[in-house]
From TrEMBL:
<keyword id="KW-0472">Membrane</keyword>
<feature type="region of interest" description="Disordered">
    <location>
        <begin position="296"/>
        <end position="322"/>
    </location>
</feature>
<dbReference type="InterPro" id="IPR013861">
    <property type="entry name" value="TMEM115/Pdh1/Rbl19"/>
</dbReference>
<keyword id="KW-1133">Transmembrane helix</keyword>
<dbReference type="GO" id="GO:0016020">
    <property type="term" value="C:membrane"/>
</dbReference>
<feature type="transmembrane region" description="Helical">
    <location>
        <begin position="185"/>
        <end position="205"/>
    </location>
</feature>
<feature type="transmembrane region" description="Helical">
    <location>
        <begin position="80"/>
        <end position="104"/>
    </location>
</feature>
<feature type="transmembrane region" description="Helical">
    <location>
        <begin position="217"/>
        <end position="235"/>
    </location>
</feature>
<feature type="transmembrane region" description="Helical">
    <location>
        <begin position="144"/>
        <end position="164"/>
    </location>
</feature>
<dbReference type="GO" id="GO:0006890">
    <property type="term" value="P:retrograde vesicle-mediated transport, Golgi to endoplasmic reticulum"/>
</dbReference>
<protein>
    <submittedName>
        <fullName>Uncharacterized protein</fullName>
    </submittedName>
</protein>
<keyword id="KW-0812">Transmembrane</keyword>
<dbReference type="InterPro" id="IPR035952">
    <property type="entry name" value="Rhomboid-like_sf"/>
</dbReference>
<feature type="transmembrane region" description="Helical">
    <location>
        <begin position="116"/>
        <end position="138"/>
    </location>
</feature>
<dbReference type="GO" id="GO:0005794">
    <property type="term" value="C:Golgi apparatus"/>
</dbReference>
<dbReference type="Pfam" id="PF08551">
    <property type="entry name" value="DUF1751"/>
</dbReference>
Length: 354
């Protein structure tokens, strides 16, 4: 966990933080920053689908995340990252390319190529390592050779891009689907993966395929959900040199609808103390304390409005504007807390005389 904590520091040491992280988005006045990763992905993903269709065994055996190959028999450790660029499904490839074209260039331009690449690599690595430990459980649950099956696809990283866009514009509609908001897109992509898997997906791998020397495809839905959680965790706790994003708009339950939101909120309450034990989330905890104090100081009528009382919105209180203002204020609070921690650490490191 300590390695994950310092990863943003290592990767961002040569990257200048951009003002778009803490300020409202504005129209660019000059040339946009280059986006080599987004441009490469837009070409690489369709090419990968064609290559996987023409030579499935070669591509899956060397680039997909096959647990027994990656960590045991062949030590293909690079598969922890490369499994994300192996595209085995045409419908999912179309979805992934659409997400890249719609959002990846903007995010890479705002963050910088190094930060954007680190974000995708983190998501891919967490998905790969999680599938390594999950494959024995899947094998036992379904009596199928998941440890010898291929976990692959860019969908977890596409969901990560969608979550980064949700952080930028939480209430913005999805291009071409005005009824779908940015907050709905990540879970919608997970649902699409599940639907495609039910209709024409890989199904449950068979022992006969492995015995015959083939590399069957594993599930797509579970890696997609793991990618959703991993990407949210990175933005919430690790980005911005470990300070994360303490705004209320980035709470995990914001990615889920209706009844699922209650479950996500309960899961967050259980998991947050574990995160605090790892030295993360202090800014979020302090922000929640400040928000609770501010709520207690408001008149009862305003507190009733927070619970759905139907008050008339004040000028400038549109959801997107309010979310952005809260994010700026909480970001400033997080930076002050970070400086206070650093000052305290320096004072503790100075030896006392005598």
């Amino acid at each position: 966990v300590s390695v994950l904590y310092w990863l943003p520091d290592i990767a961002m040491a040569t990257v200048v933080p951009v003002a778009a992280d803490v300020a409202p988005a504005v129209e660019p006045t000059g040339a946009a920053a280059p986006t080599p990763v987004a441009n490469a992905l837009a070409v690489l993903l369709p090419t990968s689908y064609v290559a996987t269709t023409l030579a499935p065994h070669a591509v899956l055996a060397h680039l997909a995340m096959v647990p027994v190959h990656t960590f045991l028999t062949k030590r293909h450790l690079w598969n922890v990252a490369t499994h994300a660029i192996v595209e085995p499904s045409l419908p999912l490839t179309v979805c992934n390319v659409a997400v890249v074209l719609a959002y990846a260039r903007t995010i890479e331009s705002d963050w910088g190529t190094a930060a954007f690449s680190l974000y995708l690599l983190f998501t891919s690595a967490v998905v790969g390592i999680t599938m390594l430990f999950a494959s024995p459980a899947l094998s036992a649950a379904f009596n199928a050779p998941y440890a010898a099956s291929a976990f692959c696809g860019f969908l977890p990283c596409a969901i990560a891009i969608a979550i980064a866009n949700w952080q930028r514009s939480p209430t913005a509609p999805v291009p071409g689907i005005s009824a779908l908001r940015a907050s709905h897109l990540p879970l919608t992509l997970v649902a699409v993966a599940g639907l495609i898997e039910l209709i024409a997906g890989p199904g449950i791998p068979e022992d006969e395929d492995v015995t015959a020397g083939a590399t069957p495809l594993a599930t797509w839905t579970l890696p997609a959900f793991v990618g959703l959680v991993a990407a949210w965790f990175y933005l919430r706790f690790l980005r911005n040199r470990g300070s994360g994003d303490p705004s209320a708009a980035m709470a995990l339950d914001g990615l889920f609808p209706g009844p699922l939101r209650v479950l996500a909120r309960a899961a967050g309450r259980v998991a947050f103390p574990l995160v605090r034990c790892c030295g993360l989330g202090e800014a979020i905890a302090q922000a929640e304390v400040q928000a609770a104090k501010a709520a207690a100081a408001r008149p009862q009528s305003q507190r009733d409005d927070d619970l759905g009382g139907g008050a008339v919105d004040l000028p400038g209180s549109a959801p997107s504007v309010a979310d952005r203002r809260r994010q700026i204020a909480l970001q400033a609070l997080a930076e002050r807390l970070q400086r206070a921690r650093q000052d305290g650490a320096r004072k503790a490191a100075v030896p006392t005389a005598g």
